[in-house]
Amino acid sequence: MEITRREKDKIVILDINGEIDLYNAPEIKDVIAKLIEEQKYCIVINLEKVSYIDSSGIGALISSLSNLKKYQGGLKIINVAGSVRKVFELTKLTSFFEIFDSEDEATAAFK
């Protein structure tokens, strides 16, 4: 798994590439914890290039969202497709997370 960070109007976009599983899910939590230390509380996670996510990956996203909410921040998810979308739907997390089809929609939701 690779995580690329970029910023757009004080919003951090994390582009994730690869699989999110038990072995690398903690890396997502670590990256977001560092962003919180930098006082970056508005984060968009791009899952366009994620082919697989397991319960550990979902747990990392839930934990990160909870931590961001402590600082009145948020976590938006974009470009969820295929089997990854099915995981979100089966676990009913489509109502827990704000999921958008585009980066522009997600960043606008922070304003």
Could you please describe the fold and organization of this structure?
Belongs to the anti-sigma-factor antagonist family. It holds the Pfam family STAS. With 111 residues, the chain is an alpha/beta fold. It has a single domain, classed as 2-Layer Sandwich (Transcription Regulator spoIIAA). It has four helices and five strands. It has a five-stranded mixed beta sheet with strand order 1-2-3-4-5. The model has no long low-confidence stretch (mean pLDDT 96).
Structure at a glance:
This protein has 111 residues and is of the alpha/beta class. It has 4 helices and 5 strands, in the order ββαβαβαβα. The protein has helices spanning 25-37, 55-69, 82-90, 103-108; strands at residues 2-8, 11-20, 42-53, 74-78, 98-100.
Descriptive terms for the model:
111 residues; alpha/beta; Transcription Regulator spoIIAA; 4 helices; globular
Poorly predicted residue ranges = none
What is the helix content?
Answer: 25-40%
DSSP summary: helix tally: 4
Which term fits the overall shape? globular
Task: Please give the domain count.
Answer: 1
Give a count of the beta strands, DSSP E runs of length 2 or more: 5
Radius of gyration: 13 Å
Major sheet summary line = 5 strands, mixed
Oligomeric assembly: single chain
In the CATH hierarchy, the architecture is 2-Layer Sandwich
Instruction: Report the sheet-strand fraction.
Output: 25-35%
Question: Any idea what the CATH superfamily is called?
Answer: STAS domain
Tell me the strand order in the biggest sheet. 1-2-3-4-5
Order of helices and strands: EEHEHEHEH
CATH class: Alpha Beta
The end-to-end distance, rounded to whole angstroms, is 30 Å
Protein name: Anti-sigma factor antagonist
Domain STAS: 1-110
Pfam family, one: STAS
Family: Belongs to the anti-sigma-factor antagonist family.
